Amino acid sequence: MRVDRPTLHRWLMLTPALLVTGVLFGVSMFYGISQSLGYLPFIGATRVSLDAYASVLSGATPAGREFWAALGFSLWVTGISTLLSSVAALLLAVALSNRRRPASQATLLALNANLALPHMVWAIALLLLLAQSGLMARVAAALGLIATPAEFPVLVRDQAGIGIILHYVSKEIPFLVLIVLAVLRTQGHAYAEVATTLGAGPWMRVWRVTLPLVWPGLSAGALLVFAFIFGAYEVPALLGVSYPRVLAVLALDYFLNADLNRRAEGMAISLIMTVVVLGLGLLVRRIDASER
Amino acid sequence: MHFQRFSVVSLMMIFAVVLVACGGQPAAPAQPEAPAAEAFDLDDWASVEAAARGQTLNWYMWGGSESINRFVDEFYGTALKERYDITLNRVPVADAADVVNQILSEKEAGVDPGAVDVIWINGENFLSLKQAAMLLPDWSRRLPNASLVDWDNPAIYLDFGEPVEGYESPWSSAQFQLIYDSARMSADELPRSYAELMTWVEANPGRFTYIAPGPGAFQGTRFVKGALFELSGDPGLWLGYDEAVWNEWSPQLWAYFNAMKPHLWRQGETYPRDENELHSLFANREIDFSITQAIAGAGPLIAQGLIPETSRAFVFDDYMIGDFNYLTIPSNAPHKAAALVLANLILEPEFQAAQILPENGFGLGYAIDVTRVTDPAQLAALEEAQAQLGEAATPAEDLAGSLVADSSGEYQSLVEEGWRQFVLIGP
User: Do the chains contact at A258 and B21, CB–CB below 8 Å?
Assistant: First the structure.
């Protein structure tokens, strides 16, 4: 087989990057899969089986008893956060680009300010602000709106995951606005103006003109956000309750369990999470492809 | 021709990456002295000290407390250098579990000698390394100072129920205690048993909570186990594992905590994850009790500004679980002799007296049985230290009177998983 020079050249240029990701990612993936199959040679477990998956999915073990609740909770928190931040980002971007003058630097800076904050910092800030012993509760109590700080509504560390959702919505909106604004900037106002002359109101314009224009960028961005939140550990660990827990927290708990035999279950949960995200990615791609 | 230049650059990068990928293993620990230089006989202590001379001791320990780090460097670091010509290299880690993972990886990769000489450890991490057969065997009872340790005490020869069997040597001790704020309530209002605690919680809804039992939150597990001891009335029952005993008492344990649940902080729908969260709830006046494991009681926490200055430690009349923490030596440790010298030095009465004093920064209890110390000067040092513990500490006789040993290791995960299933998630 003859490979022409440009193709060979391209692959050669890609090799360093491929090697790094391939080795780092591939090896850890290989270890993850083999541990989830119960292959833990350092404790003398070398029999390979699907036991860990079976016990997680059937709910036979402590990890399994929590698995379905954790999956549901993860999907709820991730889904609602992704949806809310996508819708808000779309509307915000439209509002910013509809103005006669482009959005000022100051507006964009204010919008993007929390992009620079690490998730941990933002989560702890929310905790200090919204906890029942937090700043807002104290202010509300001092103003006489509530009798004691403890009467403040439970907004973080709540069973519905409101604190986690608040965190991700506030953190992901700027990220998605950035994407949508970038798309809108390249489009100009022509389509919107044509739609207006044809009698479309503002909502109609967003729905029939802007959304189809930004959809490829927005859907890809939303998928990134979904995958990120679904796999994230630190924010649900900080802002979540003891039960229900998200899958990432459950997986790490069992991966770090003192009983090394439990590691297989932790790894199995992690790989099930990977499958969920991959499956969703394929689904979105298929929808995108069929719409084109 | 920029085309060719790019090819050369990319080829060089490929080689660099391949070299880095392959070079990881041999580059690991560059230790000048080979393990062969470690010739010593544990029964001839002078040979251990001779072998340890000039070594650098890599002590991996939890580094989250500045005051403990300073105590280790000032007290042990100086003595090791001056008396034995050993250089202490304290390696701070976020969690002893990280060291366990590192040693397991070293084992998988066949790295010997490894990087770790000695670890501050107890409980589940000890169990993990023992399970993986990565510990130096049969040494702790052969140290010269092992005679000062009460090796017949189950709280010492069992580490969270797992037999120590010479794999680790004690450093210090801790005992479960509660903390109250003397500005908020007086000492005679305090509950003195789990039964009285239930009455108190019912009378003061929302003012009490405890740490969620689970891996990494042993304080919560310990609090729940204390209730198990009181319900059954016999802590000795739990020293060995017996499924029938567990099946008999565990339903009553869950019934006790389920009865308490609606009266807890946040109606028991969530629980603090660790001691810091509990302290901050206590300091914020959301709840009225916190806990500690330190022999100096509330003192070190007050000094760190975590809880009010009027905080005091106290215990129930019985079933307050105490335990010991240990030093252990991995079987692939590069400097085993120096590690043995440290484990022995730590048991010297002068250092044991120094470690209980909060102002030295450590504030945990003795590993030795002070009644076995015969030297008058050493005895005087121990008594003086004891007298200096302030009023924030639980009186020594209360601690001794309520001390019980932890249960057999099997109960650890049974309590943690059962609590999640039957109390947290609910029947």
Answer: no
